[in-house]
Structure formats: structure tokens, C-alpha cells
């Protein structure tokens, strides 16, 4: 008996010791294990789709949900409820209109230019039901970029929302000359060659579109979502059914359920709102509250009104919420989780201290990328978590990057050099069967430019994310910065080369170097000989040709541009000098919307920015 008690005591002691060891050395073991098992289960399902001829797409999943829960609210928009049946039937009507009145067929591409509204989803679903791929166009971009986006994805038809039809001004004639059909979500249109949809809805059939396989290959493109890169103009990222299905599992992976109400204040033409937000709502069979445009003053009122439990964010969104006046109702809500990216550590802490212990789930991954990190632990300041199992499935590396030369460091054999734990490096993601890279529509050169070859051994291929990251000893991954000629502003990727091209249209500008510094967008310019700087003329040019998030806030006049040894414009030292006029001997100008001009940036104006009297 005493012997048995001794063995029992030893076993208990061993279990306690193992538990203490696990808590001390591997504190996230069980959370990691359960999360990975969940993600792997979803991944196995996608792999089976690839092996079978029958493919269940996000669109197929929506049709299933419309049959299972037809009367459940799918979308709440401006107080009006649209059930799964409502969206299913309206999208069927639109599909029949397209089939009966156009030459659209399976495989054709249609461009969609609409703001957030239920009909964005209905048109999207209608086109998907007849087998078309859809290109989501950014409603902020101007005519020159808009035309480029339209042509780069090879669209045959353009559908515009009723409130953005004025964007057609300036290039409608060009579209019509190219025999492009234009449809508007209106009952009538002043131009006789623009077709209308709303006047045909009442008589269209709401029956399901004839069941023909939309695709037999999970890697077939279903969407084109535009992203800004270093080439200067937006690029059409190819979104396959595989990618859309992966994104749709995001909420579920973080613990979302069919009982959740998801708040989507982000634009649907971006992948976060469309792929993760709408796709995730469909996957769960949940309800989403769709906002036409984000409003910091209305955010929590909406959350309380609609009993929101999950919301989507970008880092700037949370900062705007923290800047709102404090109220007694700040913690009166049912929100339990936020899913998004770009949340700074200081904003993260302020947000949770003020609005309650909301689990913030950071997701890292570009629209066109083949790698995703998910911060399921919720550790502040990290975009994701990795471990040896994750690295077995998804191959990625952080390599040393020379910020001055603006290129990866190489060893004597010409291969990249990995960084140590804790060091900052350029994130590269290996192209493999598990992590394919679909690239961009149009020129193959755009896709090839994104790929680095012979990185560690001859013949390998990695996607260059353009992001500088760091991974600590525990496997937490932190975002540090972006490299190259692209920066992120208010959730939008801004290509400095595109801004440079627009500024180059001004007759008095000879050369331009655009860069990003903390909270400001700066353009260093050289004025042509025998010309003078005209702040009003430059203001008119940027307002007419660039969206608000891409317009330079500061203009810095230079006599000559500093170049790197490889004859690239030098941005590193310009970034270091900032925009304090006391540290810069060159003339500085700041944008002024009241005066509609770029005005001299004096010490007085600088102090007004620091005190908050003047907003950037």
C-alpha cells in the first residue's frame, strides 16, 4: 500500500513538474496546438477541394446558407435588414438581367465600381453565379488610374453604382469607343449608351441561375483586387477561389460563430472587407453590419444599436476612435473581438484601456501574397505567431536588408543572409504547392518582379513582401517598416512613383522624389531653370489627379537630388531630416486646403501642427 502511495505521489509530482515546466518554457503550447489543429483542419478541407473535381467556392457556400437560413439577417445597412434570401433572390434577378441583355459568359471579367451598399454584394454575387470574374475598382482613384485598372484586368463590362456615376466623366467616351458595355445601378441615365439595371429588376426572374459548374479548379481566378506597388500604377492582384476560401476562414479560426454580428466599416473594394469580412460572414452564417463609410463618431453608437460582437479595423481606425471625446458609455457594448491589421502598440493599449478587454486579432498578409500570420494569442504589438509546425507548412525567412542601398544583403556566394532572432529583416515567403503565388493580371513582368529567385540555393523562389519584420525568441512576429517606393497611409497603399508621375505633369517641376516620414507625405522637388514654384498650380494638380491619402503634405525644394551608388534616388537621409524647418535649410511648403495652395512652412505653422491647432 505504501509502495502504491509512493508511486502515486511520484506520478503526481511528475505531472506537476511537467505542468510547471510547460508553463515556464512553453507558455503558449496548448493555445498554439489547438489553434494550429483548427487551421490545419480547415486547410485539409481546401486540399481535398483541390483533389476533387467538385469545388465548393465562397459563392456556393452563400447559396447553401441561403437555403439553410433564408430568413436570417445577412446584411444590415443604414437600419434596413437584408436576409440571406433577399440577397440571394436579388442577385438571381441581376444574374438573369446580365444573361439576357449582355454577351457575358463564364470566364469573362467585369469591373465593378461601387461604394459600400448591399447592391455591391448583389452585383458581385450575380456575376459570380454566371461564372464571371470581378475586378473591384477603388472609388477614390482618378480617371487616369481608373482607366489603367480597367484595361489591365481585361474587363469586358463595367458596372457602376448610382452615387459614383460621375466618375465616368472624362473616360466614358474612351470605354464606348473600345466597345465596352457600361451598366449603372440606376433606373435611367442621361447617356443613351449607358445601360441601366434598376428599371429591369422588377420583371426579372428571382429563380436560381441554371446550375452550371462555376469552376472545376480551386486555383481559378474569381476576383481582381487592386493594390499599389512600386511600378507607380495600381496592379490587379489575382484572387483565386483558394485564396478567397482561406480568407473566409479567418473569423472562424479566431473563434467567430454563427451568433456573431460583424461590423464592416472598411471599403468592399479592399480584400479585408470583401474576402475576410463578407466571406467570413458567409462561412459562419452570421450577420454583418455594413457601413457606407467609416465614422468615428457613429462607430460605438452603431455597435450598441446593432449588438455588434466583432468588428474589422485598420490601425488608423482604432486611433480615430481613441481620439474621440470620452463618454460614460465607452465600455457599454457587446464587442468582444476586433480583426484587422496595422494596430500600433500605443494605440492598442489605449484602445483596450478605454473600451474594455476586447481581443484584438492582428492578421498579416498582403492582397496578392502567399503568406498569412495570425496573432491568435493577442499579444500587444505583434502581427502574428509562428512555431516549428507552422514553419514546416509555410516556408518563410527574414533576410538582412541594406536600407541605404535599398536591397537585400548578399554573402560571397550571392545568396541572401538570414537575420538572427530579434533582428529586423526583409520578409520572404517561399513559393510552393502549399503556398502558390498567383501574382498580377496583365504583364507577366509584374508578377516576376515580385519574385526573388536563387535566394538561398539555386532554383528556389520566394515572394518579396517588401516588409521589414522581426521575430523574437518566443516566435512572435512584429511589423517594423516597409521598404521600396510604397508606404501605407490610412489603410491605403500609396506608390511614391505614381505620385511622382502626377507631380511631374506640372510645368515648373523638373525632378521629384517622394517619400514618407512618420505621419507626413513629403515630395522633394527641383524647379526647372527659369521657372518659379507655384503653390496654387501644384495644389490644383494634386487635387485633380490624386486621392486625398496620396497627396503630398509637404514640398521640399532642392537644387539637386542625392543619388545612391546605383543611381537611385536617395530617400534615407531625407527621411532622417524630417520636416522641422529649424533643421532644414531648404525651402519647405505645406498644403493648405483653405487657401487652396502650398504655402511656406514657417516655424509658426510648424508650432501650430505640434499644438494641434493645424491638422495634417
TrEMBL record:
<keyword id="KW-0472">Membrane</keyword>
<protein>
    <recommendedName>
        <fullName>long-chain-fatty-acid--CoA ligase</fullName>
        <ecNumber>6.2.1.3</ecNumber>
    </recommendedName>
</protein>
<keyword id="KW-0812">Transmembrane</keyword>
<dbReference type="GO" id="GO:0005324">
    <property type="term" value="F:long-chain fatty acid transmembrane transporter activity"/>
</dbReference>
<keyword id="KW-0547">Nucleotide-binding</keyword>
<keyword id="KW-0813">Transport</keyword>
<feature type="signal peptide">
    <location>
        <begin position="1"/>
        <end position="17"/>
    </location>
</feature>
<keyword id="KW-0443">Lipid metabolism</keyword>
<keyword id="KW-0436">Ligase</keyword>
<keyword id="KW-0276">Fatty acid metabolism</keyword>
<dbReference type="GO" id="GO:0000166">
    <property type="term" value="F:nucleotide binding"/>
</dbReference>
<dbReference type="InterPro" id="IPR020845">
    <property type="entry name" value="AMP-binding_CS"/>
</dbReference>
<dbReference type="InterPro" id="IPR000873">
    <property type="entry name" value="AMP-dep_synth/lig_dom"/>
</dbReference>
<dbReference type="GO" id="GO:0044539">
    <property type="term" value="P:long-chain fatty acid import into cell"/>
</dbReference>
<dbReference type="GO" id="GO:0005886">
    <property type="term" value="C:plasma membrane"/>
</dbReference>
<dbReference type="InterPro" id="IPR042099">
    <property type="entry name" value="ANL_N_sf"/>
</dbReference>
<keyword id="KW-0732">Signal</keyword>
<dbReference type="GO" id="GO:0004467">
    <property type="term" value="F:long-chain fatty acid-CoA ligase activity"/>
</dbReference>
<dbReference type="InterPro" id="IPR045851">
    <property type="entry name" value="AMP-bd_C_sf"/>
</dbReference>
<keyword id="KW-1133">Transmembrane helix</keyword>
<feature type="domain" description="AMP-dependent synthetase/ligase">
    <location>
        <begin position="64"/>
        <end position="385"/>
    </location>
</feature>
<comment type="similarity">
    <text>Belongs to the ATP-dependent AMP-binding enzyme family.</text>
</comment>
<dbReference type="Pfam" id="PF00501">
    <property type="entry name" value="AMP-binding"/>
</dbReference>
<dbReference type="GO" id="GO:0005789">
    <property type="term" value="C:endoplasmic reticulum membrane"/>
</dbReference>
Amino acid at each position: 500500500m505504501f509502495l502504491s502511495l509512493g508511486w502515486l505521489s511520484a506520478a503526481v509530482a511528475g505531472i506537476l513538474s511537467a505542468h510547471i515546466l510547460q508553463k515556464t518554457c512553453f507558455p503558449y503550447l496548448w493555445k498554439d496546438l489547438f489553434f494550429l489543429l483548427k487551421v490545419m483542419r480547415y486547410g485539409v478541407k481546401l486540399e481535398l477541394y483541390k483533389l476533387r473535381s467538385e469545388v465548393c467556392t465562397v459563392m456556393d457556400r452563400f447559396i447553401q446558407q441561403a437555403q439553410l437560413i433564408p430568413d436570417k439577417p445577412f446584411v444590415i445597412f443604414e437600419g434596413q435588414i437584408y436576409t440571406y434570401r433577399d440577397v440571394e433572390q436579388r442577385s438571381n434577378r441581376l444574374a438573369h438581367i446580365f444573361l439576357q441583355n449582355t454577351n457575358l459568359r463564364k470566364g469573362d471579367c467585369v469591373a465593378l465600381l461601387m461604394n459600400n451598399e448591399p447592391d455591391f454584394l448583389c452585383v458581385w454575387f450575380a456575376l459570380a453565379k454566371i461564372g464571371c470574374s470581378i475586378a473591384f475598382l477603388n472609388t477614390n482613384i482618378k480617371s487616369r488610374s481608373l482607366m489603367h485598372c480597367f484595361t489591365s484586368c481585361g474587363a469586358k463590362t463595367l458596372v457602376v453604382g448610382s452615387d459614383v456615376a460621375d466618375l465616368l466623366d472624362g473616360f466614358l467616351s474612351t470605354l464606348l469607343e473600345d466597345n465596352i458595355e457600361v451598366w449603372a445601378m440606376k433606373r435611367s441615365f442621361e447617356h443613351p449608351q449607358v445601360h441601366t439595371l434598376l428599371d429591369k429588376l422588377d420583371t426579372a426572374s428571382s429563380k436560381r441561375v441554371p446550375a452550371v459548374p462555376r469552376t472545376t479548379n480551386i486555383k481559378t481566378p474569381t476576383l481582381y483586387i487592386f493594390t499599389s506597388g512600386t511600378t507607380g500604377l495600381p496592379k490587379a492582384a489575382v484572387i483565386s477561389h483558394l485564396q478567397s476560401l482561406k480568407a473566409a476562414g479567418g473569423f472562424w479560426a479566431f473563434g467567430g460563430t454563427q451568433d456573431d454580428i460583424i461590423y464592416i466599416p472598411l471599403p468592399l473594394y479592399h480584400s479585408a472587407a470583401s474576402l475576410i469580412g463578407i466571406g467570413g460572414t458567409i462561412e459562419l452564417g452570421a450577420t454583418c453590419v455594413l457601413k457606407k463609410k467609416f465614422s468615428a463618431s457613429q462607430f460605438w453608437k452603431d455597435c450598441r444599436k446593432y449588438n455588434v460582437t466583432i468588428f474589422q479595423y485598420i490601425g488608423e481606425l482604432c486611433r480615430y476612435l481613441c481620439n474621440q471625446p470620452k463618454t460614460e458609455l465607452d465600455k457599454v457594448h457587446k464587442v468582444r473581438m476586433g480583426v484587422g491589421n496595422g494596430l500600433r502598440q500605443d494605440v492598442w493599449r489605449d484602445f483596450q484601456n478605454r473600451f474594455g478587454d476586447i481581443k484584438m486579432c492582428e492578421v498579416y498578409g498582403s492582397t496578392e501574397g502567399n503568406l498569412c500570420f495570425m496573432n491568435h494569442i493577442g499579444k500587444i504589438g505583434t502581427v502574428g505567431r509562428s512555431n516549428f509546425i507552422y514553419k514546416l507548412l509555410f516556408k518563410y525567412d527574414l533576410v538582412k536588408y541594406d536600407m541605404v542601398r535599398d536591397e537585400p544583403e548578399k554573402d560571397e556566394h550571392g545568396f541572401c543572409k538570414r537575420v538572427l532572432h530579434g533582428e529586423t529583416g526583409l520578409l520572404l515567403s517561399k513559393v510552393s504547392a502549399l503556398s502558390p503565388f498567383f501574382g498580377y493580371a496583365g504583364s507577366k513582368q509584374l508578377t516576376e518582379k515580385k519574385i526573388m529567385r536563387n535566394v538561398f540555393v539555386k532554383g528556389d523562389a520566394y515572394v518579396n513582401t517588401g516588409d521589414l519584420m522581426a521575430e523574437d525568441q518566443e516566435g512572435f512576429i512584429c511589423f517594423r517598416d516597409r521598404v521600396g517606393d510604397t508606404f501605407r497611409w490610412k489603410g491605403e497603399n500609396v506608390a511614391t512613383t505614381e505620385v511622382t508621375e502626377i507631380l511631374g505633369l506640372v510645368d515648373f517641376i523638373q525632378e521629384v522624389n517622394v517619400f514618407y516620414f512618420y505621419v507626413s507625405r513629403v515630395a522633394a522637388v527641383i524647379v526647372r531653370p527659369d521657372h518659379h514654384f507655384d503653390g496654387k498650380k501644384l495644389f490644383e494638380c494634386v487635387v485633380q489627379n490624386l486621392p486625398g491619402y496620396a497627396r503630398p503634405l509637404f514640398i521640399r525644394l532642392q537644387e539637386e537630388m542625392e543619388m545612391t551608388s546605383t543611381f537611385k534616388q536617395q530617400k534615407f537621409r531625407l527621411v532622417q531630416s524630417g520636416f522641422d524647418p529649424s533643421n532644414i535649410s531648404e525651402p519647405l511648403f505645406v498644403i493648405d486646403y483653405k487657401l487652396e495652395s502650398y504655402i511656406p512652412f514657417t516655424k509658426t505653422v510648424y508650432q501650430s501642427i505640434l499644438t494641434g491647432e493645424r491638422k495634417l
